[in-house]
Write a structure and sequence with these properties.
Oligomer: homodimer
CATH class of the largest domain in chain A: Alpha Beta
CATH superfamily of the largest domain in chain A: Glycosidases
CATH topology of the largest domain in chain A: TIM Barrel
CATH architecture of the largest domain in chain A: Alpha-Beta Barrel
InterPro entries (chains A, B): Apiosidase-like_cat_dom, DUF5060, DUF5605, GH, Ig-like_fold
Number of strands of chain A: 34
Helix content of chain A: 10-25%
Pfam family, one (chains A, B): Apiosidase
Protein name (chains A, B): DUF5060 domain-containing protein
Organism (chains A, B): Gaoshiqia sediminis
Chain lengths: 518, 518
């Protein structure tokens, strides 16, 4: 009897230990590890998920096979307290595993995943506003460790808090042989086309996870691009069957959805993948919507045929349309058309390459950024100087990042709600918050004088504003000495009661910031 | 026996005569008239339609009650030859009427209804291109006969071939009493709110039909606006129930769909009708799609909340967004977003009224038209000089119509396919047909010299172009004396092989037309 009690106690301890887990911080990753050796291909025919609940909320993320007889289920808890789980699988050895863990307060700098805020803007789950200032480093995750470290270091000292990056490298000879050759591909097999699309290569994805984690640590969103059209008949990752595409999408979600700094970009330049229709993309969007338990941001990046961003599963517009940022006011229109956040996610790149998409001067890039933010939208930078950064990361050498940092400072110190166009049917270049804050951008105009005149919304006679002249290129902010008390001019506008104007330096790239002080 | 044969012959003749109809021209209106006195409200509970077939095509338009014991079914045959019909009704006296008529060739000037052509453009059913040049005369159909006659006369001598017009007048005191008071309202009853929404007033609709016919005779499309938000709590035609809205829509279709010059505009400034959601509009669109047998053009005109023009039942965009025509390139973007024809259907009005939507100078209106057509889209004019034209029709006194006529001449003598943007991601102000025809608009820029440089698409070395300088305001076209032979500059562009530029007058509103001659 005593023996039996001792044995029972030992077994109980084992049971506890087996299911005992370290606490996980809020929006951190809980990872359940299960060993199992089902017969046949471990990627095929084995369903695995786990249901997590704290009594109020319930989530059921899918698990994935991580190689070497190990299956994993990842979960990102969004509420502190005790969570229990139970696995569900069609393979007995993976089914019915139960346990619990405690979710504790988030560590410093962990604000959770990003959500939409005020229709056109974003905030982290803890309500801290998130103003995207993106950059593009498509292939950085496939470079040497040293290069990756350098990229992270550069990003850390840059204004950029979102990185557009490919989940799968584009075809490139250098990735097949030589010093840059890849050790791992997403599928088992060998390049160029000897792939087993029924077997993922977990090591490839683990390396990608490391990159996402590194971005997370420096507060950068990984705008992770699932598909891309860049194999040109070689590797064939862009000509897989719809079934393989779906499998890949679900595997990516199972591995990455628990990372709080993930956004899903379904594809880069999607219509260049000729065999996939908009209905195919609808389906893949629905897969992401269904299997990502946390509702990370979802969009798709167009080529010639623009996907219909008004579809309900698209959280924000991720547009490639260079001319949309060359004139003011277009981002405001796009907001009104879609009633979603607008990301001008490819606006050409600062650079000096022979292709015209990579020939912007730093001032033109800066100008396009200002046009975008004044339109109440967000832009994404890229650099193609000597062919660098855009593909491989490394160092930034352009002149626009410093100006983008300056703009970011202005945006982040502006209205907490985010910049919204003011009177967007009649004003092309004015954003802010009616009655409180006005940012007016003159772009390439050589304005010498601006007669104070503001759209009437939320204004009252007697309100007093201070004005600052912002040189967006030289990054200076100069307070105008006199202030401006408003009087009504007509049904539509208020002017300074003394008829004062503001003198401007008569050169391009100037802006004004008017802030109400009384 | 003889008697019986004679009687049979007489009856047979009667049968033929009873169903004998005059021939109807192709795209004209066949109207079947039936007398019946069903018990109760003749508008309610009586279903009536007729199925028309020529053996190959079959159409089943709904009929309508036209007052005085008369029901009608209208049909627009689109194929020459013999058509037979048979009525279907839940009232015996209207059911099972059969007959036939012959459809003959269309008369001169009858090109049939308008269809979409080449995704972004229009043509009549006989393939004659239709390039919309619209104007706005919301309330013209509710004015005196004399005024209406004047409006038709003005239109006849104007560049305008599409008129945006309300099917129901907005509330106005002058329509209730005084010399302008209306003799008829769409419903039985008396203003302001004593309406029987179960009884239409056929006389009101007959007068509207006369207006549509008058427009047809001078080749003008009636862009007929079914609903409008302008009753301000008075008449209540904008606060009817969804059932009444549907009934009204079906009655309008039954009466007007057989007119070949009809377009359906579901509503003007639709979101100002606060109680109707986008789903309500979806439903009304579907009603139009279902009951209009001919697929006339369908759109809706927005206020603040922009209806999703990508929905499948919307044939073209009918946008109100003033800033979209103040900068070049936006119409091209809208084409790429929607892949439908873009009509900039409210771009502010030439005028001098106190409201800012009616304060455009003639040159600004002309500028907005050019921006639109260079973007591969179509615009709609309006005039608010001394409050005239826009509401009541009458005379045009502005300075833009002559310039719009000039533009129309250029557009109609341009590529038969319609103007399409050339290289719309990189060029903001160039339309035409690659390799053949280029229209370049400089807007408000004071260009003195334009170095010949064209995007490479469809160009080859050695091609020769002639150039004309177009003064869009002074309406002159000046041939440049020398021609330009092209050579390749780089991956993207061709230039004149001698490096020639074109000298321009250094003032606003200039354009260039380059036409290939060799």
């Amino acid at each position: 009897m005593k023996d039996r009690i001792i044995w029972a106690a030992i077994l109980w301890c084992f049971a506890i230990l087996a299911n005992a887990h370290e606490p996980v911080e809020k929006w951190g990753i809980f990872e359940l590890r299960l060993e199992a050796q089902p017969p046949g291909n471990p990627f095929v025919g084995i369903s695995l998920s786990a249901t997590f609940t704290n009594g109020t909320e319930t989530y059921s993320p899918e698990g994935f096979y991580d190689g070497n007889g190990v299956y994993k289920v990842r979960f990102m808890p969004g509420t502190e307290g005790t969570w229990t789980y139970e696995t569900l699988s069609n393979f007995a050895g993976l089914n019915g595993h139960k346990g619990e863990f405690v979710c504790v307060a988030p560590s410093a700098g962990n604000h959770g995943p990003v959500r939409i805020r005020n229709t056109y803007h974003f905030a982290y789950a803890d309500s801290t506003p998130y103003y995207p200032f993106g950059t593009t480093i498509y292939e950085w995750a496939f470079q040497s460790d040293e290069r990756k470290k350098q990229t992270i270091e550069t990003l850390k000292n840059s204004p950029f808090n979102k990185a557009r990056m490919l989940a799968v490298p584009p075809f490139g000879d250098r990735y097949q042989s030589g010093p840059d050759s890849l050790h791992h591909f997403p599928y088992e097999g060998t390049p160029p086309q000897n792939w087993d699309f029924s077997c993922f290569n977990p090591e490839f994805f683990r390396e990608l996870e490391k990159c996402v984690t590194d971005l997370q640590e420096i507060g950068v969103i990984a705008d992770l691009i699932l598909f891309r059209p860049y194999d040109h008949g070689r590797w064939g990752f862009d000509t897989m069957t719809p079934e393989c595409n779906e499998q890949f999408t679900r595997y990516m979600i199972a591995r990455f959805a628990a990372f709080r700094n993930i956004w899903w970009s379904l594809c880069n330049e999607n219509s260049f993948i000729r065999h996939l229709t908009d209905e195919d993309w609808d389906h893949l969007f629905q897969i992401v919507e269904t299997y990502d338990p946390y509702g990370h941001m979802r969009s798709i990046h167009n080529a010639g045929r623009i996907y219909d961003y008004s579809k309900p599963w698209v959280t924000h517009v991720s547009l490639q349309y260079y001319n949309a940022v060359r004139v003011p006011g277009v981002s405001a229109l796009l907001r009104d058309l879609y009633r979603k956040p607008i990301l001008q996610d490819e606006i050409n790149y600062e650079g000096n390459v022979s292709r015209r998409w990579g020939q912007l001067s730093g001032d033109e890039m800066t100008y396009r950024f200002w046009n975008t933010y004044i339109g109440g939208a967000y832009a994404t930078h890229g650099e193609a100087i000597e062919g660098g950064w855009l593909s491989n990361g490394g160092l930034l050498t352009g002149t626009s990042p410093a100006r983008i940092a300056f703009l970011r400072g202005i945006v982040e110190s502006g209205p907490a709600e985010g910049l919204n166009p003011i009177d967007q049917y009649y004003e092309l270049n004015m954003a802010g918050k009616p009655g409180e804050y006005y940012l007016i951008y003159f772009g390439k105009e050589n304005i010498r004088e601006w007669p104070v005149k503001l759209p009437d919304n939320e204004l009252e006679e007697g309100m007093v504003f201070q004005a600052e002249i912002i040189d967006t290129w030289n990054m200076t902010i100069t307070l105008v000495k006199h202030t401006f008390q408003l009087k009504k001019l007509d049904n539509y506008s208020f002017v300074d009661e003394k008829g004062q104007s503001i003198q401007l330096p008569g050169k391009p790239y100037q802006a004004l910031r008017l802030t109400r002080i009384e």
